[in-house]
Amino acid sequence: MASLQEISQRANVSVATASRVLNGSSHPVSSQTRAKVLSAAEALGYTPSVLAQLVRKGQRSRIIGVIVGDVSDPYFGAVARGVEEAVADDGYLTMIASGRRTTAAELDHLRSLRDHQAAGVIFASSGYENDPLTEQAQELVDSLMASGSIVLALAPRDISCSGRIAFDDRGAAFDATRYLIGLGHKEIAFVGGPGGFHTSTHRRDGFEAAVRSAGLTPNKRLTGGFEYEAGYRAAQHIALSPERPEAILAVNDDVAIGLVVGFRDTGLRVPADISVCGIHDTRPASYVGLTTVAAPLSEMGHAAGLAILNGETSGTTVLPHHLVERTTTAPSSARAAR
Amino acid sequence: MASLQEISQRANVSVATASRVLNGSSHPVSSQTRAKVLSAAEALGYTPSVLAQLVRKGQRSRIIGVIVGDVSDPYFGAVARGVEEAVADDGYLTMIASGRRTTAAELDHLRSLRDHQAAGVIFASSGYENDPLTEQAQELVDSLMASGSIVLALAPRDISCSGRIAFDDRGAAFDATRYLIGLGHKEIAFVGGPGGFHTSTHRRDGFEAAVRSAGLTPNKRLTGGFEYEAGYRAAQHIALSPERPEAILAVNDDVAIGLVVGFRDTGLRVPADISVCGIHDTRPASYVGLTTVAAPLSEMGHAAGLAILNGETSGTTVLPHHLVERTTTAPSSARAAR
DNA sequence: TTGTACGCGTTATCAG
DNA sequence: CTGATAACGCGTACAA
């Protein structure tokens, strides 16, 4: 609360000198006056006004904003952890802001981050197709970048940013599907998230390509969300459906887990009756022994954090994924019977 | 990026007039000049410098910081969601900062929140006993409160804040234990988190009181953490131990789930061989059908958000919990045999 | 109704 | 080495 003004009066020096002592100035100050200023500051409990400093110097603050889609989604927790690990030692603060899967909320956060001159902004979640708010978002991102902030996208986005760090959504789905095919399954379905999300679409495309390349027929369906509940509800429908698939690739772990639990609640055995595979390998995957594609979540966060620290203003990085085989997938019964 | 200065030049008015038009001033301005200013602002893409406004007026910003222990813990996701729901419509922004279960990291976040004049700060996680950094934290909290911020604790803390909104840790553990006793179990254990955390201690006390009140002997053990892995490891030890308990209350859901999965991996049946109960009722609890105590997490967040909006500077609120019976607990085999 | 002048807390420039 | 002074972008008494 104490200002430089008060310090300078108490120490009988000018504000300028007080400023030089109290903040990292290379300007020489005699050790005597330095001591006076220091003790005055100590006595009054001086804390520099970071706000005033920022106004004066027009620099970036030490805040890094991570805009996520859902604070309860472990996906984002993993990403945020990665960011934090990369930047905490340099005194940067990671703040997570929930976009609640709506661009409108994201805009609010972008504005706030711009207002507070954040050092960097990280989009951790995917965007919508044909989002009418994209233009506004792009404007904000542009103004952010123009004033020196680094803006990074960790998931597909219709926004041009400083850079992009991600894994291959299409490839991950493709690989998982090939794995299911290799297990001998013929009837394979993809259970997507809500329609219109880029990640959903890319993963569905990868799924479809893999199925077609094996001469099979793709089977797709959408759910209302990316969460457990959506998967659980989908399981109820699928279990009752006449042409029930033998294997399912879900758009992410949460939906996959919903499917597993949903199937079991309807009496279906997983994986004996039906195989289920997820994408992400978030922590809950191991709760149910879910087979899934491990995505480099914390690595993406880490890389993003470093990019902001280093002021990298361009480039695209694609980090590798790999399949993690657990206990929700098994060879098809037809094949097992052989 | 455009300043009032530039606007005023383009519109041929003074900076003062521009300011009055562009910010909510009750000062009268003719509709003519108003239009001039507005179009100039539009043309230049004016955005007020929130930082300068804050410096000038010394008011709080529209940021609410939620300091959590672990961004991957669904407990905090639920709390943060509650806060968000309460404040988003009023234009306040919820930013989550990870304290990583260390007071040092929390101090960094507190400083940053103070520097940016946050409207409110919410401690979502418990503190340590005999934490040497408590004093520093208290100083920061005091300066925050002195400058008009509301600081709330949602878990036990050795810090005096503006207010406290929580549920009854001791009571929740007590009720859960009574429930296990009611199931006929005699050998009941408590699996805590890392030692020294207030929540751990309070819940353990509740457990112990319930056990003793039934004339039984408490059985306690600690794990290294609040996470799934800690519970999983504990299960390995417990499964092999000669005096294996019949029922277990875990300090939270994640540890409980770790226990359930760990037991099953060692061949033990849950709940036939051993009952497991958690605390919190976070989303993953339903993944494994965990019996647990539902804590009012989002309600706590919601109430905290409202308290900040309303500038409430005192009071303690305790919100109710209740038991949710699922499939990881069952009557003791002795009793079932009767 | 408009403009002038000052202050918020800093930092940078320029004299001395 | 130290100190006035201006400026960052803004809001507001006060004067016109």
Structural commentary:
The structure is a homodimer of 338-residue chains. In chain A, 46% of the residues lie in helices and 16% in strands. Chain A has 338 residues and is an alpha/beta fold. Chain A folds into three domains: 4-48, lambda repressor-like DNA-binding domains (434 Repressor (Amino-terminal Domain)), CATH 1.10.260.40; 63-167 and 298-319, 3-Layer(aba) Sandwich (Rossmann fold); 169-295 and 322-337, Response regulator (Rossmann fold), CATH 3.40.50.2300. Chain A has a six-stranded parallel β-sheet with strand order 2-1-3-4-5-11, with helices on both faces. Chain A has a six-stranded mixed β-sheet with strand order 7-6-8-9-10-12, with helices on both faces. In chain A, strand 8, helix 11 and strand 9 (275-280) form a beta-alpha-beta unit. The longest helix of chain A is centred in the middle third of the chain and has 16 residues, at 198-213. The radius of gyration of chain A is 26 Å and the shape is elongated. The N and C termini of chain A lie far apart (79 Å). The mean pLDDT of chain A is 94. Chains A and B meet through helix 4, helix 5, strand 2, helix 6 and helix 12 of A and helix 4, helix 5, strand 2, helix 6 and helix 12 of B. Strand 2 (93-98) of chain A pairs antiparallel with strand 2 (93-98) of chain B. The structure holds a DNA duplex (16 and 16 nucleotides).
CATH superfamily of the largest domain in chain A: Response regulator
**Based on DSSP secondary structure assignment, what is the total number of beta strands of chain A?**
12
Radius of gyration of chain A: 26 Å
Mean pLDDT of chain A: 94
CATH fold-level assignment of the largest domain in chain A: Rossmann fold
How many H/I helices of chain A?
14
Order of helices and strands of chain A: HHHHEHEHEHEEHEHEHEHEHEHEEH
Indicate the structural class of chain A: alpha/beta
- State the distance separating the first and last CA atoms of chain A: 79 Å
Identify the CATH architecture of the largest domain in chain A.
3-Layer(aba) Sandwich
Strand residues, percent of chain A: 15-25%
Q: What is the quaternary state of this protein? A: homodimer
Number of domains of chain A: 3
CATH class of the largest domain in chain A: Alpha Beta
**Biggest pleated sheet of chain A:** 6 strands, parallel
Spatially, the strands of the biggest sheet of chain A line up as 2-1-3-4-5-11
Low-confidence stretches of chain A: none
Helix content of chain A: 40-55%
Inertia-based shape of chain A: elongated
Which two protein chains have the largest interface (Cβ within 8 Å of the partner's Cβ), and how many residues from each?
A-B, 53 and 53 residues
